[in-house]
Write a structure and sequence with these properties.
45% of the residues lie in helices and 20% in strands. α1 (13-25) links the parallel β1 (4-8) and β2. By secondary structure, it is of the alpha/beta class. It starts with a strand and ends with a strand.
Length: 157
């Protein structure tokens, strides 16, 4: 059986745990599964011209270029770490995809474009109060994708 398992990754420990759990519990040596590592960069911030001088200095092209480079470097770092974790399962194929935008929307869009069979995500384990203010990417994806979503909670230390 060949499956395309999309694993949403970010810089969190919960994401790393979900990927490791997926490799240990869903992948067998006889399977011909493909793991698709999906990372979503935040979009570049757009700031209105407030007073001309201050914002022009604060958000100059150099500053924006530096912020964009940091975002790209972070994405590359997260992907390298995730690919290293996947090396523990040398029989699995690994693909990578980096999107840009609101993680909730980009993940939902990409799992369909990538023809995934399953979406695996970590959970930050926010309570109802934090989730009400911060939102839950995993909850949004579970309710807005057409494919099964496996949300992996990291055990409390």
């Amino acid at each position: 059986m060949e499956r395309r398992i999309v694993v949403a990754v970010d810089e969190s420990e919960e994401s790393t745990y979900a990927l490791s759990w997926c490799l240990k519990n869903l992948i067998s040596e006889s399977s011909k599964d493909t793991i698709i590592l999906l990372y979503v960069r935040k979009p570049p911030l757009e700031y209105p011209e407030l007073d001309g001088t201050f914002t022009a200095y604060l958000f100059s092209n150099n500053i924006r270029a530096t912020m964009d480079k940091y975002s790209k470097d972070l994405a590359e770092s997260v992907m390298e770490k995730a690919k290293m974790i996947c090396q523990s399962s040398p029989h699995v194929m690994v693909e990578t995809k980096v999107g840009c935008g609101d993680p909730r929307e980009v993940i939902c869009e990409q799992v369909e474009k990538l023809r995934g069979d399953l979406l695996v995500m970590g959970s930050h384990g926010y309570g109802a109060f934090k989730r009400a203010f911060l939102g839950s990417v995993s909850n949004h994806c579970a309710n807005n994708t057409k494919l099964p979503v496996l949300i992996v909670k990291r055990p409390k230390d």
